[in-house]
């Protein structure tokens, strides 16, 4: 068969499937793809840093942000500047938009109104060759016979929960590999910064803690990885060792106690095959079971292992946003969720040797700044954020294209996930070198390192050398640059251990403040930000403001932490914006009303805090005056995390509405039935004022059940 015949067969197939002889893809041109080799004309795009409306001082920005959320103007009219509340993004969006470059907010506008209502409701399926199938009154079943309830529930688990769970468990597995390398290969540059934490959790795992710390690190890492790889029918050792006792009893009764995480994901995906399981409730309960594995073989254990390597959280005042970039320094951004290579690079960049290498290249020095959740982890770990080579935290995932558009980012190194596919185009335009530090994420025209923990020092050297060469090129080409001058001062480093330490070694003072009503309860505002109308950080900010005014203490994690930082809510001065009870507590302790726990993966630390509070009160976790909120959830890990919260018995609020509304059975199960089983439930609400009232009402209900006024 000739090449021409093959091409004709493709075109004929398209005609047979769609009724015409042209695919949608036929209309696309080179500029519509992300391969940088197809963008030779990218340098012809004119960037003008002067033709933009500059943001005022941070004090004035904070005042504007507070007035802005009162206006209810977050619609398509005036979009996106009416939803962007980060002052640096407001400036850099204008730069990129006026240059005609693709960017996240403009892409959202381009997708309207073509986003499919069937997909929004979960009523579409592409699992087999008889599809795609869409369910409606005219066609109430797919070709195979699947009905709306099964299709929605199956999509929910397959497209969201299995991927999110596997991602978090994968992350934990890579961290455990790194811990093992730290014990076996001192030449790797890896360190065991918190040996006491290693001993504590190894002891809880039943390991011999009297052996040398390096051997204990290897033993504990193997214990973690072996549990992840265990069969699904063998009960998880990490869940048994670290989950609340009363929860474990319930999970066993309901058949939700998981086995090995990877095997659990494989089992769940097998159930999703065409013509396998058709019971929608089974899919949803399986999602809760995955949520338990997601927590204990993913988030919680990941947090413990990374803190052993990088140091436990430490409460401190730090800084955030693009104003931390320096035109005459070598600027390295580390992006993603897995700062395993980045922390070795920070160690090296902090030495006099590497600072001198930077100066020899004509720079004032070299600094590594974190971005998205990776940055939120680095700004919290005491072993990282006090080093000379560390420069601070940048922003949320929405800002990364605009970050490169400053022209001063020399190296953008990234691991999984939240590195957008358009970065090669921006890197080519603005002279940034891209480097993937893990083969699980590859972008076109981009260097990729294999993940070899035993050689991390060697790989970190390569990354720093690349950054120095990129800086030399930037100076040789004398490129025009612009750095938005805005920086926020924020208090960071909160965790179970650091909060308890600040309270004098016990949660008793916090419990007393909850009991006397100064703190009505706790809300965790976690997860992502989205480009949607009414969001872009605004929904997070508005809800959080309403909660602290109602004397509800807020814990943040993920890109929401960046929102809290650039709106000033993680500054102790924000105590003035609280209700009288919470205000008094914050002023007495010198803390803000929003305690940032760091990254989205640090949600595992929040559940740890909740468990210790429940233990101190002598109650099950579902009795706590606590709400979990993801007001701008984005992707699969957030849905898996919501299943974790349901497993632990909590009310979970998510917005925008997930793809479940096509089935009243699925909606009823997640919003009502699960609670009758002793689990939590899900609430979907877009309106900020209604959301605040839902949180307040639930917390007051739980206070009443505990006998608190």
Automatic annotation (TrEMBL):
Region (Disordered) location: 1-21
Keywords carried by this UniProt record: 4Fe-4S, Iron, Iron-sulfur, Metal-binding, Nickel, Oxidoreductase
Keyword 4Fe-4S belongs to the record: yes
Record InterPro entries: CO_DH_a-bundle (IPR016101), CODH (IPR010047), HCP/CODH (IPR004137), Prismane-like_a/b-sand (IPR016099), Prismane-like_sf (IPR011254)
GO molecular function: 4 iron, 4 sulfur cluster binding; anaerobic carbon-monoxide dehydrogenase activity; hydroxylamine reductase activity; nickel cation binding; peroxidase activity
Documented EC number(s): 1.2.7.4
Keyword Iron-sulfur: yes
Cofactor: [4Fe-4S] cluster
Protein name: anaerobic carbon-monoxide dehydrogenase
Organism: Anaerovirgula multivorans
